[in-house]
Specification:
Layout lengths: L1 E5 L3 E8 L13 E7 L1 H11 L3 E9 L2 H13 L2 E7 L4 E9 L5 E8 L6 H6 L1 H5 L3 E4 L5 H13 L3 E4 L9 H4 L4 E2 L3 H8 L6 H12 L5 E5 L5 E5 L3 E4 L13 H14 L4 H15 L12 H11 L1
Parallel strand pairs: 1-4, 1-8, 2-6, 4-5, 8-9, 9-10, 10-11
Antiparallel strand pairs: 2-3, 6-7, 11-12, 12-13
Helix pairs in contact: 1-2, 1-9, 7-8, 9-10, 10-11
Length: about 300
């Protein structure tokens, strides 16, 4: 069953140095890496590699970064529903990493994907309306995300909003969502409530349900995830797939795996466990899209957990 994902692709350009340069200063860096990024793109890759029929809606330029995107999607089995534009660039992100601490500072430029409009969404109405599961985030314009959720809901799709990066979200947009999947900091930003304990997470999730969200799933990093609906509240522990190498992209792995599991008819709680397994494997590898596990790996970890 098709999973349709709306989002942004950006090329991650990562620079590691002892410190950030001051304005007007040039310093030598220690290393550089170039790789695929963007939440929506990462989620589409995770979904496809987990066995989902993933379709990705976005915009690209006509440049080497667009070539990278198409190559990554082709290798993962993602079906692109993208337009390419020669007058604007594909998105990119500057990521500075301080060598000693690992702390980072990031500048994201969505490029042409920042122009995705409600009209662009209308042009993909048949694809969105025919989805079994539809998922989006907030890296593209909010109006586009809301219109896509409206079309998906009208078509009978299960709708997922991963509210990242955190932003103020209208109540009418939240009411279009079967599942909202923020992490702890995003939950705090959206609800104004602290999320430092499981009880606090439940209180924040209840706040989201009061906005007519059908179910809140708060991802809790090394503590797993909280599934909270009107009828049940279940803490799903994290799974151990090995030593943690890099947590970047773990949330995207969870969302992609969760969407794939829902599309194949798994019960919501089972789909959350599937998403947790997907994320657990992804953090044992560097990178975002390159770290997403294959379906056989996810099944093996779930079987091991019992």
């Amino acid at each position: 069953m098709p999973v349709v994902i709306l989002g942004v692709f950006v090329a991650d350009t990562t620079y590691r140095a002892d410190r950030a340069p001051r304005m007007g200063e040039t310093i030598m860096g220690n290393s550089f890496a170039l790789g695929p990024g963007g939440k929506g793109s990462n989620q589409a890759v995770a979904c496809a590699k987990a066995g989902g029929e993933a379709h990705f809606i976005s915009k690209l330029g006509i440049d080497p970064f667009a070539d990278m995107a198409l190559k990554v999607w082709g290798a993962a089995g993602v079906t692109p529903a993208v337009t390419q534009h020669e007058d604007m660039a594909t998105g990119a992100a500057y990521i500075f990493v301080e060598e000693a601490t690992g702390d980072n500072a990031i500048i994201i430029c969505p490029g042409v994907a920042g122009t995705i409009s409600a009209a662009d969404i209308e042009a993909r109405g048949d694809l969105i309306g025919g989805a079994d599961v539809f998922m989006t985030q907030l890296e593209q314009p909010m109006q586009a995300a809301q219109r896509a959720l409206e079309i998906a809901r009208a078509g009978g799709a299960t709708t997922i909003l991963n509210p990242a990066p955190a932003a103020e979200i209208a109540d009418e947009m939240l009411a279009l969502c079967d599942y909202v999947t923020p992490n702890e900091s995003e939950t705090e930003s959206i609800t104004g409530l602290p999320v430092s304990t499981l009880d606090e997470a439940r209180e924040a999730a209840e706040h989201l349900l009061a906005k007519d969200v059908s179910c809140a799933i708060i991802t809790l990093g090394e503590n797993g995830a909280l599934y909270h609906s009107a009828t049940e509240s279940v803490h799903v522990p994290a799974m151990d797939a090995g030593a943690v190498v890099e947590t970047t992209g773990a949330g995207d792995a969870f969302n992609g795996g969760f969407a794939a599991a829902l599309a194949e008819g798994r019960a919501p709680l089972e789909a959350v466990r599937f998403g947790c397994a997907t994320a657990a494997i992804s953090v044992t590898r560097p990178g975002t899209a390159p770290s997403m596990p294959a379906r056989a790996e996810i099944d093996a970890l779930l079987a091991k957990q019992g």
